[in-house]
Structures are given as structure tokens and as C-alpha cells.
Design goal:
Length: about 80
């Protein structure tokens, strides 16, 4: 952890490039440093997984029962 503190700017740059950076204390990972983009993607995935309607739509798609309409149908 002390080493991470002294190298924080470099660790942030690695995270910005998409590499999750583990922070360890006494041979145990205690935290991760991830980019804003990655964190937003994780939160979005969690929100979808917690949404019953979204999960139903995903299941319908996987089962081949989803209906897709052209975007122009939104104009009606």
C-alpha cells in the first residue's frame, strides 16, 4: 500500500488505459483501481441484472423469442 501511494499517478494512468490495478496489503488484495469508464460499465451491468424486466428481455432474446422492430417504428 505504501508503494501504491508513492506510485499513484502511474497507477491511475494504467487504470485509465483499461488495466484494473490491484492494491495489496500483506499479500492480500484489499482494493482495485479501475477507470471511470470501467466502473460505469460495472454499475450499468449491476443495474441491468437487478432489473426484472431487463432480465426477462435478455432471457427472451436468448430463447429466440425476442421481436426486433426497425428504429423507424419509434417515429409513430
Amino acid at each position: 500500500m505504501t508503494e501504491a501511494q508513492s506510485q499513484l499517478p502511474g497507477l491511475i494512468k494504467r487504470a485509465e488505459r483499461g488495466e484494473p490495478v490491484g492494491i495489496r496489503r500483506r499479500d492480500e488484495t484489499v482494493a482495485y483501481l479501475v477507470s471511470r469508464e470501467r466502473m460505469e460499465a460495472i454499475v450499468e451491468t449491476m443495474e441491468l441484472l437487478a432489473n426484472p424486466a431487463a432480465m426477462k428481455a435478455i432471457a427472451e432474446h436468448r430463447a429466440g423469442r425476442a421481436k426486433f422492430l426497425p428504429l423507424s417504428s419509434l417515429d409513430d
